[in-house]
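User: Hi! Is it possible to get a structure for several chains at once, not just one? Here's what I have:
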Amino acid sequence: MRSESKITARYAETDQMGIIHHSVYPVWYEVARTDFIKKAGMTYTEMEKQGLMLPLIELGCRYIYPAKYEDELTIECYIEEFKASKIKFAYEVYSKDRVLLNRGFTTHAWTNLDLKPLNMKKHFPEIYDLVLNSMEETDE
Amino acid sequence: MRSESKITARYAETDQMGIIHHSVYPVWYEVARTDFIKKAGMTYTEMEKQGLMLPLIELGCRYIYPAKYEDELTIECYIEEFKASKIKFAYEVYSKDRVLLNRGFTTHAWTNLDLKPLNMKKHFPEIYDLVLNSMEETDE
Amino acid sequence: MRSESKITARYAETDQMGIIHHSVYPVWYEVARTDFIKKAGMTYTEMEKQGLMLPLIELGCRYIYPAKYEDELTIECYIEEFKASKIKFAYEVYSKDRVLLNRGFTTHAWTNLDLKPLNMKKHFPEIYDLVLNSMEETDE
Amino acid sequence: MRSESKITARYAETDQMGIIHHSVYPVWYEVARTDFIKKAGMTYTEMEKQGLMLPLIELGCRYIYPAKYEDELTIECYIEEFKASKIKFAYEVYSKDRVLLNRGFTTHAWTNLDLKPLNMKKHFPEIYDLVLNSMEETDE
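Assistant: Yes, the chains can be modeled jointly so their relative placement is included. Here is the combined structure:
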């Protein structure tokens, strides 16, 4: 499964180079991740309420072309790797005319509310299955 | 008492007008407020641990001259009004050569961790006294 | 005319109180302002290209109820005051079930690209008329 | 040469996990980079005025331990790779008691004001030498 999120670049996200500041892309990835989880049949809010958190352990971004204010972008998100201890999401940011502007990934640990790592297959088997299903699903 | 905080404007805080984005000033006010509370003999972290929070109920900013990237600024902070139910801080942002660039205020409710308003004179008398003392102190 | 913007609160916009940080509302106002200008028949990007800028001179926010992560919000925007030298926008942020969470305003100067004030009725008569029309229009 | 930057984590930089949001580290890296360039005998503001820009082409971060509000951090920055077409900076974020919380890198293209790549050894030989010298210098 891939999720698609629509984002319009905000003025506050620009910098004095006249482009979207590079630190904004991880925020957009997060919007895409939120949408992915919702599309998989859950909400991240609900996950946290159940005691499951997803802090980052690694982030990578490649900046290919700059995005600009008012650009209407599409962010695609999918799972690249999934284990009981961690999960890796990949992202692609496209312009309106389908040019790849940016790509990246985030790797997260599954933790409890105190940010201690946990085996989520064991402690959250239903969410584990949800994630697994989302990976198998083909987008029609 | 007045506190003084030194801030250097960050690149990420600029926008495509080539100036510091207006939404950054409330963040700088918060840095100044953090320093004020520390100077008054406490930390905001400690306050929250004791169960006391300070969510905003009002914010006001006046933008006089724009700040720019790498500008070395001084933010002065003082209490303008103090009650058992709320507190109002005032801020002045000065350039290196002492031009007033921006001024503003924030009004906060005293609440518990669930964001319910409380009478802090009654529930946190020591912090109440600390604040009161900080207002009487004259800066030498 | 009133514009309506839909926003979903982002994780990055939360703070450790578990609510949306107060400095985010001016950013949302700006999203709403961008949408308003587009609805009025222009884009802010186009305005800047023509040499017209809208830096803030004043900002005010009232925080009534906190917004939270993943909340689906509606931001309404309209012009409260309009002159050849400045313009004042008003904003209302509503929750999904139509509770007013936050309201505010921004006042802007009309300036050239060097941020020098100008009389926009004189220098940009077409944009002046566009704004004027947008104020007269009733939303159906 | 290594530069050292002192940063105190801001409240606005926290998220509802109670830690500093991961998108803040690239902003801190930038603060460190600004300080590095200053220590090397220049300012980034001056570089941009001369027509030289440094947009990101790649970013990487590893999150080891979370930073929290009011934490007093040290960010070390040094050049890991330097060519006429691009430059790579490395960063290490340490807690007050010298625990490595986060490490990362940014790779930048040397470009003109229109973000077109350029050979900076050829077009900005003095800045090229400055950078080269900064790499050779040993910190005492």
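Chain A has a mean pLDDT of 95. Residues 25-39 of chain A form the longest helix (15 residues).

User: Great, thank you!
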